[in-house]
Amino acid sequence: MKGFEALNAFWETFRSIFPLTAFLVFIQLVVIRKPIENVKEFVIGFILSVLGLHFFLQGVSMSLFPIGDSVGSNLVVLERKWLIIIIGFVIGCFGTLVEPALKALALEVEEISIGAIPNKILIHAVAIGFGSGMAIGLLRILNGIPYLKVAIPLLLLVILLSFFAPEQYVSIAMDSASATTGPVNIPLNMALAIGLAKVIKGADPLLSGFGIVGLTSLGAIISVLTLGILTRI
C-alpha cells in the first residue's frame, strides 16, 4: 500500500511538470522551428527536475509543515509577546536567506546593474523586510487586529516610498517580493502562523492564520524601496 501511495505521489509530480515541458518543446520545435541543442542533457534535466520536486515536496510535508505548526502552536507558552514577535522575525529572515528564487533574482540584478547592486546586500535587505512583515503578521494574530487595518497602511507606505525611490528599485522591489514567496518560506511561515492562530483564544485560524504571506511580501517591498532611497541619499 505504501509503495502504491509513493508511486501515485511521484505520478502527480510528473503530471504537474510534464504539460509545461511539453508546451515549451512544442514552441521550440514547431513554432520557432529550432532544434533542442542537447537532447540528452535536456532529458536528464527533466528527469532530475521531476525527482527533485517530488523529493522536495515530500520533505516539506514531513518536516517544515509539522515543525512549523508545532512551533506556532507552542509559542503561546512564552508569556512575553515581544519574544514571540522576535522569534517570528528571525524565522522570516533565515527562511528568506535560503530562498533559491531570491538568490537567482539577486544574481541577475547584480549582473544587469554591473555590480552596482550587490546580490548579498539585496538579499539581506529583502530578508529584513520579510522578517519584519512576519513580525507584524504575528503581532496582528496575537492582538486580534483586523487584516485591513494592517495591510492598508503598509500599502500606502509602499505607494509613498515609490515616489522617492529610484525607478529601478521600484521594479526590483516588486520582483523581490514575489521571489520570497518560494518553496521554503511559504510552508514554514504559513504553518507557523496557522499553528499560532489555532491556539489563540477567540482567534479563527481561517481569518487570522492566513494573510501572513501578503504582509511579508509588503515588508520585502518596503525594505527594498528603503534601500533604494538610502542609495540615492
UniProtKB/TrEMBL annotation:
Keywords: Membrane, Transmembrane, Transmembrane helix. The keyword Membrane applies. InterPro entries: UmpAB (IPR011435). The chain crosses the membrane at residues 13-31, 43-62, 82-102, 122-141, 147-165, 206-230. It holds the Pfam family DUF1538. This is DUF1538 domain-containing protein.
